[in-house]
Design goal:
The protein has one domain. Helix 3 (about 70-80) links the parallel strand 2 and strand 3. The chain is of the alpha/beta class. A six-stranded mixed sheet has the order 1-6-5-4-2-3. About 30% of the residues lie in helices and about 20% in strands. Residues about 1-25 and about 190-195 have low confidence and may be disordered.
Length: about 200
């Protein structure tokens, strides 16, 4: 019995080692979004729905994952974000208008360097360093009320050819979905006010 266990264990280790050798070559083609979406203690289910009750939320896009103009990047990112959130489909727009609440915003930052967090994004994006175009691409998003953080999330992907690459679209869409957690952590019953 002990010999059989060793053989199965050795086989399992061999398979794991083979996969470990295979996956790094593929991992650059996969989108990953942090599973530990970080709602601030002040975040409650319904905050995002309240912020977007008129249909839209102002969204800042900063950083440079590709060599394109900031306006080209912003237009593409906002288009990809539209309707990708949990709850009622929301329009992500560049400026405040009748359909936004000026107290709230989302910030989407590409390739931040220096260990900045969602709190930094909410406080203001001027002067936040970006490592510029290139791969891998990271996308940090923050949902803010004024300069206070409500939630934050990070997505990343390896090799991306440009704005029209399906992997770039997946990065933006999956990170947008991850920005609003399904639960706020305040209730003990596990109910979700923000279903997928």
């Amino acid at each position: 019995m002990e010999m059989s266990f060793r053989i199965h264990r050795a086989a399992a280790i061999g398979v794991a080692a083979a996969l470990a050798g295979f996956l790094p070559g593929c991992s650059g083609n996969m989108v990953t979004v942090s599973e530990d979406v970080s709602p601030a203690p002040s975040y409650y289910d319904g905050d995002f729905e309240y912020a977007t009750r008129n249909g839209a939320i102002r969204t800042e896009v900063i950083g440079q994952p590709f060599v394109v103009t900031p306006d080209t990047l912003k237009a593409r990112v906002l288009h990809l974000m539209d309707g990708q959130n949990r709850g009622v489909a929301t329009k992500f727009v560049a400026t405040n208008g009748n359909d936004t609440d000026p107290a709230f915003k989302v910030v989407a930052a590409f390739n931040l360097s220096g260990g900045y967090s969602g709190r930094d994004l909410c406080r203001g994006t001027a002067g936040l360093p970006s490592r510029g175009a290139g791969t891998p691409i990271t996308l940090d998003m923050a949902f803010c009320i004024g300069d206070q953080l409500k939630t934050e999330v990070q997505g990343r992907v390896g090799v991306v050819s440009g704005l029209d690459d399906p992997k770039f679209a997946a990065l933006v869409r999956q990170t947008t979905l991850g920005l609003i957690p399904p639960q706020d952590g305040h209730g003990g019953d596990g109910d979700s006010a923000n279903p997928d």
